[in-house]
């Protein structure tokens, strides 16, 4: 009879705990809607009853969820890029949906996958060129992609800087490029460059905010309104994907940084069977006219699995991926 060592006992104990408690998954979906203004206060009363995109809309991989939506308009069409969590590869990949009017979205396919996890695909247009800055923390580098053949083919054009940074968010503000990025432990880092491709420099106060999971991890594209700049942040203090806050940046220079909180803008409804019952963690906004914005958000509800059903589902997904 073999004697279990302490490592084996811990594994057995963990497995037993999972069997007893089951598995809890966060199932994210995406909603796109119009607003008469930039979202800077709670939009809980906005009609977000039905998601615009969910995992069942993804046809080319077995998706567990869709999240982190970013919108651009290009040649009179709207393009929505977002994370698709592929159950087969157990990684995030970048999916695409297209719309003529911003209301009805048609899923296309996965447009970017790597050997590491991808998410948070911030897309932006410069002239005729389209760029994407996704989260690539699994690669240990912040990678900038450019459309080789828009919108389906992408290639890395620059390693902006090294590090395991979360949800890097880029903005051009007062003739300089800025990237806000989170890191584990609740820290916010700031980088700047005169040109998009760099060289990128660290802010001397980095990390500019430390040890605060309420206000440090980026939660969507920064919005510049004239001389004002707003940043959105995930509140992960209670649990991942709880809510989104907005901050007004008061001081931004190569040497200083200061901001102030404006409001919580997104959170879960706590309503049974609501697709965003248990939280929201992302917002992107596109000004489409002087009085209209197209807004993309995500929301989640938790799903509890029997452990064996969860394990079988993963095995089946790998077989058919």
From TrEMBL:
Source organism, top-level taxon: Bacteria
Keyword Protease among record annotations: no
BP-aspect Gene Ontology terms: xylan catabolic process
UniProt keyword annotation of Chloroplast present: no
UniProtKB keywords: Carbohydrate metabolism, Polysaccharide degradation, Xylan degradation
Gene3D superfamilies: Glycosyl hydrolase domain, family 43
Pfam families, per the entry: GINT1_N
Domain (Glucosamine inositolphosphorylceramide transferase 1 N-terminal) ranges: 60-299
Protein name: Glucosamine inositolphosphorylceramide transferase 1 N-terminal domain-containing protein
Organism: Paenibacillus ferrarius
């Amino acid at each position: 009879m073999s004697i279990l060592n302490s490592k084996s006992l811990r594994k057995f104990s963990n497995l037993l705990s999972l069997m007893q408690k089951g598995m809890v998954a966060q199932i994210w979906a995406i909603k796109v809607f119009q607003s008469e203004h930039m979202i800077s206060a709670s939009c809980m009363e906005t009609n977000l009853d039905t998601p615009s995109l969910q995992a069942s809309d993804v046809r080319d991989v077995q998706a567990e969820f869709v999240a982190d939506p970013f919108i651009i308009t290009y040649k009179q069409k709207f393009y929505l890029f977002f994370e698709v969590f592929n159950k087969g590869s157990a990684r995030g990949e970048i999916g695409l949906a297209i719309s003529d009017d911003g209301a009805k979205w048609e899923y296309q396919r996965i447009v970017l996958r790597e050997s590491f996890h991808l998410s948070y695909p911030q897309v932006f247009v410069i002239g005729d060129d389209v760029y994407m800055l996704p989260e690539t923390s699994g690669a240990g580098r912040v990678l900038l992609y450019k459309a080789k053949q828009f919108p389906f083919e992408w290639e890395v054009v620059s390693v902006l800087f090294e590090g395991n940074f979360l949800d890097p968010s880029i903005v051009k503000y007062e003739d300089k490029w800025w990237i806000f990025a989170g890191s584990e432990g609740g820290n916010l880092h700031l980088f700047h460059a005169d040109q998009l491709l760099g060289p990128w420099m660290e802010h001397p106060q980095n990390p500019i905010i430390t040890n605060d999971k309420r206000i440090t991890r980026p939660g969507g594209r920064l919005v510049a309104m004239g001389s004002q700049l707003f940043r959105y942040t995930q509140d992960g203090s209670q649990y991942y994907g709880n809510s989104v806050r907005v901050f007004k940046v008061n001081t931004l220079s190569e040497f200083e940084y200061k901001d102030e909180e404006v409001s919580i803008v997104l959170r879960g409804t706590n309503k049974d069977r609501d697709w965003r019952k248990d939280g929201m963690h992302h917002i992107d906004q596109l000004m489409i006219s002087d009085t209209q914005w197209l807004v993309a958000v995500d929301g989640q509800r938790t799903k509890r699995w029997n452990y064996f059903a969860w394990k079988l589902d993963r095995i089946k997904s790998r077989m058919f991926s």
